[in-house]
Amino acid sequence: MSPEDIAPMDAVRPGLEFLYAAHAKLADPIQIGQTPDGMRRIIPILSGRVEGSRIRGHILGGGSDWQLLRPDGVTVADATYAIQTDDGAIIQIRNKGLRHGPADVMARLASGEPVDPTSYYFRTIPEFIAPDGPYEWLNSSIFLCSGARYLDSIQLWVWRVT
């Protein structure tokens, strides 16, 4: 194959297919404390709902986001939780990513004020572990997520990279 035979970049540019919106209720943070790499805390995930055209269900309690608040002001999220679809499938999700923004915006967010989610960066990469059956397609794609954090909840929007 010669370079002339390679498809142009626009022909192979990934697209995005909206998958679902989710809203989850969160418990108060459990502070682990200062560590060599920053402040660590656990955010328990209590419940929630997932709504999309290909998947609908509720977020099971018992998951957590194990966060690292780095000295540079970036929060590293590493959440593991599960959803139960309306038709009974259990799907595990591990969602890793970053949240940061201007210091004044992040201070308002930390104090519980409502903050426009477009004023800070909150992006994650969810990885799904679905059982064989109607949702096994989740195991063979890459996904992207944008988020918004509120005082005691979180909103997530998830896309499949096509």
From TrEMBL:
Pfam families: DUF3237 (PF11578). It comes from the Bacteria. HAMAP family: UPF0311 (MF_00775). Belongs to the UPF0311 family. This is UPF0311 protein SBA_ch1_01980.
